[in-house]
Write a structure and sequence with these properties.
Layout: E1 17-20, H1 27-36, E2 41-45, E3 64-68, H2 74-84, E4 88-91, H3 98-103, H4 105-123, E5 130-136, H5 158-177, E6 181-187, E7 189-191, H6 200-209, E8 214-217, E9 223-224, E10 226-228, H7 229-241, E11 246-250, E12 256-257, H8 258-269, E13 274-277, E14 289-290, H9 295-301, H10 308-317
Parallel strand pairs: 1-2, 1-4, 2-3, 4-5, 5-6, 6-11, 7-10, 8-13, 9-14
Antiparallel strand pairs: 9-12
Helix pairs in contact: 1-7, 2-4, 4-5, 6-8
Family: Belongs to the NAD(P)-dependent epimerase/dehydratase family.
Pfam families: Epimerase
InterPro entries: Epimerase_deHydtase, NAD(P)-bd_dom_sf
Length: about 325
């Protein structure tokens, strides 16, 4: 186990936050947001998603300590918690790409359920004041209407089931551990720079940045609530800094179909994008609509600030777009 920098350990003035999954899509922007808020950060990741290099930006920062560790390694986590004694924990680490979870359910449950229990076990040696658990909108029952936090939960797949189990573990054990401030953030469809998985937006952008104007995609008729990753990070940081507790949907309240996404991205890059269905990309089980009712979120920390078009433009700006040859319109 790496030694924690003295400035990060048990310093109430900087309110240290331990972030698991710190190299992930949400993890890196959350570390940035926490640093802007004056927190020191212990950034934990095992590198299994191939994104560990994203943490390199924090190496010159004495306020961030990077630790390579697996959330299933209870001995290492307990040692880390005892040494760092964080004021708060943000538990983001998970297997969350649904096709991978469905293909290897045991591995998903191992990380998402056992890993969460290991984090809770480690908290027993130095209970944090605040604990944020990144859950998912996939816990909700299928319904075309926007989901409130009180909506029926009935996940249909292993990912949603694993996250709902994590919520139950936290709910049932927080009081025993002496954690007084618990927030469960049910994330809707988060997008932005740095997503290593072929979700719909990254896949569209991958094909567009390769110069394609005819895109091979799956079912574009389903609608999702897309929320920009920097907005998500700011809201998670705000949850930790506040005194709010409970379950919060993190979404915009607007559902957008895949067809509309393609049109928006085409507008941003100045191309007429044509789509065709690749049967291999069509999921066997697919919700038609998944959208948040974000009223509780707005009351607690505000509404996501970034429009979908601006968020897509910012995501594209982080990549290299291949110009369309003269005279080619799709």
């Amino acid at each position: 186990m790496l030694k924690i920098h003295p400035a990060l350990a048990a310093d109430a003035t900087t309110r240290p936050v331990l972030v698991t999954g710190a190299a992930g899509l949400v993890g890196v922007p959350l570390v940035r947001a926490l640093r802007r808020g004056g927190h020191t950060v212990v950034a934990v990741d095992d590198g299994s998603a191939g994104t560990l290099g994203r943490l390199a930006e924090f190496l010159p920062d004495d306020g961030v300590h990077v630790v390579i560790a697996d959330v299933r390694d209870g001995i290492s986590l307990t040692s880390l918690m005892r040494e760092a004694r964080p004021w708060a924990v943000a538990h983001l680490a998970a297997k969350h790409f649904i096709p991978e979870c469905e293909a290897a359910p045991g591995a998903a449950l191992d990380v998402n359920v056992l890993g969460t229990q290991r984090i809770l076990d480690a908290c027993a040696v130095a209970p944090p004041k605040r604990f944020l658990f990144a859950s998912t909108a996939d816990v909700y029952a299928t319904d075309d209407a926007p989901h409130a936090e009180t909506s029926l939960v009935a996940p249909r797949g292993v990912y949603g089931t694993s996250k709902l189990t994590g919520e139950h573990l936290l709910r049932d054990q927080a009081h025993r551990l002496g954690i007084s401030g618990v927030v469960v953030a049910r994330l809707f469809n988060v997008y932005g720079p740095g997503d290593p998985h072929p979700h719909l937006i990254p896949e569209i952008l991958r094909q567009v940045t390769a110069g394609e104007t005819r895109l091979s995609l799956g079912d574009l008729s389903s609608a999702r609530d897309y929320v920009f990753v920097d907005d998500v990070a700011d809201m998670l940081s705000s949850f930790l800094a506040s005194t709010v507790t409970g379950i919060f949907n993190v979404g915009t309240g607007v559902a957008t179909t895949g067809y509309h996404l393609v049109r928006l991205i085409g507008d941003v890059v100045g191309r007429n994008l044509v789509t065709e269905v690749d049967p291999a990309r069509v999921r066997q089980v697919e919700r038609k609509t998944l959208c948040a009712a974000p009223d509780r979120l707005v009351s607690a920390v505000g509404h996501p600030a970034t429009s979908l078009r601006d968020g897509l433009a910012a995501t594209l700006a982080a990549t290299t777009v291949v110009p369309t040859p003269a005279g080619v319109t799709g």
